[in-house]
Design brief:
Its main location: membrane. Belongs to the Lgt family. Its EC number is 2.5.1.145. There is one protein chain. The chain has about 325 residues and is mainly alpha-helical. The chain is globular and about 65 Å long. The protein has a two-stranded antiparallel ribbon with strand order 1-2. A two-stranded antiparallel ribbon has the order 3-4. Helices cover about 50% and strands about 5% of the residues. The chain has one domain. α1 packs antiparallel against α5. β1 and β2 form a beta hairpin. It contains ten helices and four strands.
Amino acid sequence: MIHAAASVVASIPSPSVSYWDLGPLRIHFYALCIIAGIIAAALLTNRRLTRRGAEPWVVLDISLLAVPLAIVGARIFHVLTHPGFYFGQGRQWWNPFEQDAIWNIWDGGIAIFGALLGGAVGAWLGCRWTGIRFWSFADALAPGLLLAQAIGRFGNWFNQELYGVPTDLPWGLEIDYPNAAWPVGLPEGTLFHPTFLYESLWNLLGVLVLLWAGRKLRLQWGRLFGLYLVWYCAGRVVWESIRIDPSEVFLGLRTNVWAAIFGVVVGLVIIVVQKRRHTGNEPSVYVPGRQWQPDGAVHSQNTEDFVDVSAPPASDVPEETATSAVPRT
């Protein structure tokens, strides 16, 4: 039940501005948060991949396809889950000068679940292009993806959007009044749950959990990415459930809650299936025959994996031990 917040002794103020105007160019802080998140994810993913023998900055080659498709997927998912914003009476969804036209991603929003779908397609294509194993890349990306989402969520703080139900807690979020997204019937001075902050803190904790799990539990073959889906989507179910921004509702739940539940299920399926399919460690982050050799390295005809010359032939070694010489991630 939505109610006005009581008097509190502290709160989180919202920024008074959300963009800079540099001549004719307007720079939105929301976009800067997203860009900062992408850069942080690329840096962390590059470090994780190169430690396993990948070519330095191959992540950029993959990102050339993954990032644009992620943005397209994010916009498509938002449009499909908010059809009234774009196809309602009097709307000209095809008109680029219409506010909230489907082409104008700066008006109306993007959705992370669409970004995951579009980005996955782009990453798969990028991995095919570079020779990197798709699941190796997904596992290397998982902590960085949570870090990017933690940083990107602060864009909602600058935009004063996607906040939760009213609260009288000391960390209640102040929103400018009047505000186009202000819930009808609530008085000026009402404070709201800062869902952007909850999700950011949850994601930062998740980064630590994934880094620990990858190192100590040696989750490979996509299982670390599966854990990412479980962790992120489980938290998203909670934060999404207390948001009060408009959303399509099916069977009593917001569309993004259903998407998050589906994400948890997919993550669990990936963990279980990949655990059964692959009982040993990954031999390399590259598919057979596509290994990268640094300048000056001794080239070998055997490019299937890192070879321990003191070990018996690979055909005589079971999968569980054949890759014991592979550096830990």
